[in-house]
């Protein structure tokens, strides 16, 4: 796995998306940050961008849970249908305002979910998330 | 007309012929020779003749034709007559249906003269109802499809409607239709009648209480049968019987006059009430009373057999008969004559022994009565015994039993007299009148004869005594002690030789000879003080002639009158004669003269026998020489001093007479009667002793006594047996009687223990004194060599007797004990039940050789009768037990069935096929079906469609395997209502485990189920509400947290360094937005909570149109700009009672949703209200973009749920509010929708009202 190339944010709340972008860009200027207010658009983007076999672009995906039309959980179901070629590129973190233990437990059970982040997304969280990624690379 | 034509034709022929002739003669040969001419003429002549002949033939033929024509004419006339007067109507109709020809009957049928009918439409006369039939018929007819028929009703003017059959054909030229109309009213009626009678027949047939079956005789084919038949003969369905051959029916005749029935049927005679026994299809034995009639059915001879179940009666009869037979056999077997006589002493019944004893046949006896002059009956003493004093009439007169009457009945047949000991026992009816008298009797001829013999002997003895007695002169006297004076009778005075009427005591003393003074004083003082009999012989000196005479005086003393009454006899002559005899020593002569008497002359001193006659020698068995060496003490077995005293007394002149026992030479002991007188021989006193052997008499006496005892015993025991009801009482009483009447020392009855073989005494009578216990121990210790009478009698099934316990080795084991108890003879008689020895009847006598043949015979009879009684009592007891059990069973069945009938739980009983045979009241109460409606039917009439077929199969499999089935059914009542029942269905089994019925115990648990359902609905509701609450809490927390976390996040961003002013401004604006959002959420929450808390619940009547109008007013511009159309229909339900704000909010949310999510085409909103039962229904429909309910259905009414991308206005609270408010009002909302097809909401409110609870 190579160096982290991109962070994708999926949340229907534009304010949150703006906060995340600013926090990430503030610490990691080179990282590309993409955000989607509708999960469907995000799914289309992933399919379009990551379907190539040798595209080795590891990305972090920040996924909100409570969204209209398609919720975060429904997104994960759709995502699970993707080929491993696509899925191998992603590390998914749930980013939600929910502090419900049920949601946290459910997220922990999902094998595609790496971690659960409570809103608001801040610099500290961002750093530890990326440090975590890098540690994984070293080990 | 025709004839003329023919004639015309004939003249034509001639014309033609002439023309032909002319044409032929046009070219005659001119040059004809004469010969030729002659020949030609001849030929012509021949032709002419031929023609003439032909002509005449033709004329004749003509005539014949004419005759025929005439006949045809006549026939025609007749035909026309027939046509007119035919019983059926003939019509000719045109193709248009007009009548053109009609006969008289036809006209009559239509009720008008023919001329008025012609040219009218035939169809007019047909009833409206049947006219279409005729029209079809007529149409088919004129289409030329051949002969047609139809049945219609004619409607003639005044006549009643006539049912007719019409047959029609098309005439040859197809111009007219000929129709024949036949009145079939009568036929129809007849058919109806037939049908009615058929119906009646079948209703009688099927509903008859008798079992009916119709069988065709020639092939035994079963044509029909009814339900009763199936039931009685054990079939479960008609198919098993109807259409079968009788041989195929599994009904087996058991008993009855079948051949007689067959021959009656064969001879076409009816069979009436024949009782037959059958084994029915289920193998059950039944008795039926059968009647068979023959009848014709479908041209074949059939039998209709009706059968009535008489099994119960038969069984009862059988039981009665059985008990009668048993009674008869009991009576017949008794060795006692038994007669049963009616209330008028008429003979009803007799047993063989009675006939034998009376010397009559049964025919001769039955019908006679006690009063019949036929009887020649005498008393024991030979006096006549008239009919009305016989025991039976006496017992009828008194109502009391008459016992032990001796009757001598003359038997003309054998010309002898039988002596009977007769008992009569009246049997009373409940009202106390006589039902019958049971007369039992036993032959005692032997006893009577013996008694007679005995009597004769006694008379002989008396005569002898009389002959020996010298009859002296006699007198009476009285001696009054107070006066000390004697009053002699004339006879007594004569003996005293005095004229005195009163003799003083002193005078009396003077009469006595002095030597007798002390002897007489002693006797007299003994009489007065000790009341000893006064019997003295002495000498007196007569007063008038001084003669000394011998007298014998006897006397008794009467204390009350203080008087001695006495007799006196002059015995001088007797004494003198004796003296004379002695003195003349002619004693031998006397001895030899009376050869019948044994005589001895004895010396009073020492008792030496001085003389004995030949009879004496013969009697004692000693030669005379030997005999006279003996003393009387050698002979007499009594060794006391009595004999000595007697001899001395006799020697003093006192006559002596008594019975003693003497021992003979051979050692045997004889009973003798001794008469002694003193005689003087050679001036010495001797005793002349006459001896009479009374052994025979004694034995006869004893035997007679014994026999009469035993006879009495047997007769009494037989009586006991006749009335015995239980074994132990019988045996006990028999034992008691045995001892009492039979003069036995003890009697006991022992029963044989089947297992150990030991005899256990059960009953005893008489002096037991522990004897039974003692012999028990003896027997127990000597089981191996026990050959006593008891054991022997058991072994040999016969009596066993030991007549000398002391010496018989048979009793060696028990001898000591037996003798100690005074037993000298024993007999053991076996008691036999069912050919096996079950016990013994043992009797003990204190006398040696007690049991002789006669006695044994009688006792054998007693034991036989006892055996018989034991056997029969047991049978009788079993029968009674059985009857009691049946009665008990019936009682318990009655109680149980009442209990079941009154039970608050439904009960039903079905047969093996599942057909209901019983239902209780509760069943009727719950299901609405009466027993009559369901009996014979299958419980599946209750079945609803809700119970799966498999369930029924499981049920049947379970119960047919003999197990109980539990389950719940949803069943249907008679009125169609459904109800839940919890059922336990169990098989009813016989003791042998055979299943006979099924019992269903059911409970209506509808209320329970409903309550359960309500409960589970409640729980579901609660769970739903709880979930909703959870969801609410979750959503709320999320939506509250979102703006809060944004504010925190933005605040974090504001802390970053190097922020541009634009950025700072942006973040601050965003913070403000988030705060506003937070405020929105809090407001929403407030609104929702308000709904949930149902504040301001003011209910008012609201018109739907008002609400919609006020909303539309608010949305006016939007509605106009978007060109929205409303289609409102509140006709069915204009208004409702509800909370205005809620209803407003509901419609506002729905309408604003419709506007928000509109499609390309102009929005159309349809709102309809209507009433459905007790519900108010509001239908709301739009043509917007709709929603995919497959994906979003479950979240449709969720809080903060949004389903549409790009429609940012949606907060996701509208439908949630709608739902919450509707539910608060007690209603329901559901939606149906497809993407791009709009959405439809259905809102339901209960009770036609929208109200809050």
Structure description:
The complex is a heterodimer of chains A (139) and B (1253). Chain A is an alpha/beta fold and 139 residues long. Chain A has one domain: Rossmann fold. Chain A contains six helices and five strands. In chain A, strands 2-1-3-4-5 form a five-stranded parallel beta sheet. Chain B is α+β, with helices and mostly antiparallel strands and 1253 residues long. Chain B folds into nine domains: 2-80; 86-189, Beta-Lactamase (2-Layer Sandwich), CATH 3.30.450; 208-309, PAS domain (Beta-Lactamase, 2-Layer Sandwich), CATH 3.30.450.20; 341-443, Beta-Lactamase (2-Layer Sandwich), CATH 3.30.450.20; 473-570, 2-Layer Sandwich (Beta-Lactamase); 593-693, PAS domain (Beta-Lactamase); 699-874, Beta-Lactamase, CATH 3.30.450.40; 903-1004, Beta-Lactamase, CATH 3.30.450; and more. In chain B, 44% of the residues lie in helices and 26% in strands. Chain B has a six-stranded antiparallel beta sheet with strand order 7-6-11-10-9-8. Chain B has a six-stranded antiparallel beta sheet with strand order 13-12-17-16-15-14, with helices on both faces. In chain B, strand 26 and strand 27 (669-681) form a beta hairpin. In chain B, helix 36 (1140-1156) packs antiparallel against helix 38 (1214-1224). Chain B is flat, with a radius of gyration of 68 Å. The model of chain B is unreliable at 1-7, 464-472 and 583-588 (pLDDT under 50). The chains are: A alpha/beta (139), B alpha+beta (1253).
